[in-house]
Write a structure and sequence with these properties.
This protein is α/β, with parallel strands linked by helices. The protein is about 40% helix and about 15% strand.
């Protein structure tokens, strides 16, 4: 179906270890705006090369895929498109609205880049009324120069805080970070506190796995018990929902994580 509609997924492009599980459950995280990124983060498997122009028909194709799969929870993400004036925010908004037309009852979650900190771009996405606005900080502030040198820790926090402020309807904000890149426990807890100060509701914490020898190497493998302890601390800090474990990724079992934050 994905080949038929010409669609990409972050599951395949980012070499997610959960791809087979998610595909077997007939769910995927759609990767819009192409599969080539304008940034070269040293943890990510997505290709860094000049991207093609956005597909005008991509919002319709994504919406059709969601309808074919009868999704109750749709997750949309993208590569970073610093080459576009709005960073691709308008394309996100079109895709959200196209999905809403086909599946008006579905929960729509977006995982967005930082749009270079452009508040107007963030507002464009928020005004399309996703249910969840996700932007990952990925790692602790000290490691940004090593792991994601074209990003900025404080800018990412500002994106999350502004999204919450700009929403004129209920909006859950979400973020995630990877363990095993060389961070300390105190640094991780400082990220938790910063995210809560930015109004972040939902948190994901997972183990970093190097996609290849050319990427940042794994500094350590975190024990499952430590992930459980981090989840406990995060909930005590006020996060409404937390997913923490070795194979957790920001979009993994997104519906279950959302339901914990939004109990029926």
């Amino acid at each position: 179906m994905l080949r038929d509609l010409g669609l990409s997924t972050v599951c395949a492009s980012a070499r997610c270890p959960n791809q087979h599980e998610c595909f077997s459950r007939r769910t995927a995280t759609f990767l819009i705006l192409g599969d080539a990124c304008t940034r070269s983060c040293r943890f990510c498997a997505i290709s860094h090369r000049p991207p093609a122009p956005p597909r005008d028909d991509e919002p319709r194709a994504v919406a059709e895929a969601c309808q074919r799969l009868a999704l109750r929870h749709v997750v949309l993400t993208s590569v970073t498109r610093d080459d576009l004036p709005d960073g691709g925010a308008g394309h996100f908004a079109k895709t959200i609205r196209a999905v809403r037309e086909r599946l008006p009852r579905a929960i729509v979650e977006v995982l967005v880049p930082d749009f270079r900190g452009d508040h107007a771009a963030v507002e464009t996405v928020v005004r399309a009324r996703p249910d969840v606005f996700n932007h990952n900080v990925e790692t602790v502030s000290r490691l940004y120069g090593l792991v994601r040198p074209q990003a900025d820790y404080r800018r990412s926090l500002d994106v999350l805080a502004f999204a919450k402020q700009a929403a004129d309807a209920k909006l859950h904000t979400k973020s995630g970070l990877m363990m095993g890149l060389g961070e300390t426990r105190d640094e991780v807890l400082a990220v938790f506190a910063d995210l809560r100060a930015a109004g972040c509701d939902i948190l994901t914490v997972g183990q970093y796995l190097a996609p290849s020898d050319a990427h940042v190497p794994v500094a350590r493998f975190v024990e499952p018990g430590e992930f459980d302890e981090l989840a406990r601390i995060a909930r005590e800090l006020g996060f409404r929902s937390v997913a923490s474990g070795p194979f957790v990724r920001s979009s993994y079992r997104a519906e279950t994580v959302f339901r914990e934050a939004e109990p029926t």
